[in-house]
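Form P-L/3: holo structure prediction, ligand zinc ion.
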Amino acid sequence: MLIDSHCHLDAMEFNQEQEAIIKAALDHGIEKIIVPAVNRKSFDDVIEIRKKFSNCFYALGFHPMHIGDMKDNDLDTLQSYLNTYEPIAVGEIGLDFFFTKDNKSLQEEIFIAQLKLAQAFDLPVIMHVRQAIDDVLKYLRRYPVRGGIAHAFNGSRQQAEAFIQLGFKLGFGGAMTYPRATHIQALAKSLPIESIVLETDAPDIPPSWLGNQGRNTPGELLQIATFFAELRGMNLTSVIEQSHQNTLDALPKIAQLCTLTENLH
Ligand SMILES: [Zn+2]
Ligand SMILES: [Zn+2]
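OUTPUT (holo model):
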């Protein structure tokens, strides 16, 4: 039972093809897909995806690269959506100083506001931490939440350990599959297995075998898991089971929702 812990199924690239993509992923053993929202519009889109496909689970939040188009009352809207639609996490939130540092203080303000919402609703967070890990850690210490995932992790070992200590899992995906990604590979190989979750981040971060032309989809997770298993010298079945369990530990509402559906049948 593979679980793609980070996939933007609502992205334009997948427009109108979600059913085929989810079916193809299921054929590759990807049973569950976590879909984090990125902006106000995607709140409704990811909720709609869950209505159609019960193996998809959504998080709601404002991505740091999308805060430029936020409106004044958007944080209030997030609060009322958290109340009404009960997502499995607040996300995708975080900081991105690779894309731009020009709006650093605005990014921080929105990030902090969303951490406070995660505290108020007792939800884990799904975080984007590109070139901003020390700042993210600083705010997590100031506004502690009940863990979650630091996705597409590419920090130092010390930073990884700091996240783990704060109750977080680290997301690994396509980026580790490139021959030159020796740093990410070393982390993926040696961090405690309980702290690792797998992701495609589709349609972003295509794995090495897709080349420039190929489209990244959640179906790639099987090959990513296979790559990871070889890297760690583990068998694929244990990797699949362990990473599934780790994701449920980070996002416990998924297990609750699954039991609920089973009881209905
Ligand atoms: Zn991200
Ligand atoms: Zn993302």
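COMMENT: The pocket of zinc ion (ligand 2) is lined by residues 6, 8, 36, 92, 128, 201 (CB under 6 Å).
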